[in-house]
User: What shape does this take?
Amino acid sequence: MTTDPWGRVDDDGTVYVRTSEGERVVGSWQAGAPEEALAFFRRKYDSLVTEVELLEKRLRTTDLSAAQALAGVDKLRSAVREAHAVGDLDSLMRRLDALAERAEERKIEQKHAQEQARTQAREVKERIVAEAERVAEETTHWKSGAERMRALIDEWKAAPRADRPTEQALWKRMSAARNSFSKRRKAYFAGLDAQREEVREAKERIVAEAEELSGSTEWGPTSGRYRELMQRWKASGRADRASEDRLWARFKAAQDAFFQARNAVFAERDAELRVNAEAKEKILAEAEQELQSISDPRRARARLRDYQEAWEEAGQLPRDSRDRLEGAFRRIEEDVRRAEEKEWQRTNPEARARAQATVDQLRGSLEDMEKKLEKARAAGDDRKVRDLEDGIATRRSWLQEAEKALEEMS
Assistant: This one.
C-alpha cells in the first residue's frame, strides 16, 4: 500500500482520498506504480485548485456578478464533492465557503449600486423634464426650440430607466411639455402673416434711409449708420420671401454705391502711404535678421524696443499691406516673448522640481506595472498581459517626453 497525507493506493490498485468525512474511492490504477497513481490524481486535484483560484481572482479583480459567482461556487462544490482526485479537498470546500460569503456581500453591494443607479436615472430624467418644461414655457425661437425638444426626447430614450412609477410620472410631464410647446408654436405661426407685414413696412423704412445715405461723403459716420441699419434689418425679422428679396436688393445697391465711393477715396489715400510701407518693410527685414542672431533674451528685448519705436515713427500703413506687415511684426514680438518665457522656465527651480517629480513618478509606475506583467504572464492571464503591455508602452512614451523636457531644463 502506498500513501501520502491526502490519500493512498491499495494493493489491488484502488485509489482513496482522505476527507473529514473519511475515505472514499476516487479511482483504480492498474497501469503502473502506485506513486504514479497518486501523482495522476494529485494533478486532478491541482486542476480543481486552479479553478478555485481563478474564481477567487475573478471575484476579487473583476465586476463578476454575485449570481454568476454563486453559480460558479455551486458548480465547484459539486466538482469537489465528486472529485476523482487526491488532495486537501476539505480546504477547497472551505475556500469555496469563503467565496460564497464574499459573493453574498457583493450581492448586497450590487443591490445598493442598482438603487443608486435608479436614483441617478431619476435625477437625469428629472433634469430632462425640467428642461423640456422650460423650453415649452419660455422658448420663442421655434426652430431651435423644436430641435432642443427633439434632442431632449432622444436624451430621455438614451437615459437609464428609473423605477416604473417614477418613469410613468416623469413621462407624463414630458409629454405634457411637448404638447404645450407644439400648441404655442402653432399659435405663433397662425399670426405670422400679420407680423410679416409689419416687418415689410419696417424694412421699407430701413431701405429708404439707406438710399438717402448712399451719396454721403462723411465716410466714418455714414459707415456707422449703415452698420446700424444692417443691425436693424437683422433684428426686424423676415417679411414674405418676395418682399424680402426685393427690399434686400435695394438695400444692398444703396450700400454698395456708398462703399464703392468710399473705397475709391481710400485707395487714393493708400497710394500716399506706400512710402510708410517701404520703411516698415526695411525695419521688418532688419529686425528679423538681427533678433534671430541674439541668444540672450534680455538683449533681444532691449533691441526689440528700438525697433518698436522705429515702427511707430514710420507711420500708418496702406490697407492692402497693413495686416501682412503688422502680423509679421507681431510674430517677431511673440518670438522674443516666447524666448523670454522659455529662459524663465529653464531657470525656474520649481518647474525643474515638478519635471523631476513627473519623471520619478512615471519610472515608479513602470516598475510596478512590469512586476504585475511578470505575475500575469506566470498566471497565464492573457487578457491582463495585453492590457499591461499596452499600459507600459504608453507610459514609456510619456516617460520619454518627460525626460526630454527635464533635459531641456538642464
Observations:
- The mean pLDDT is 81.
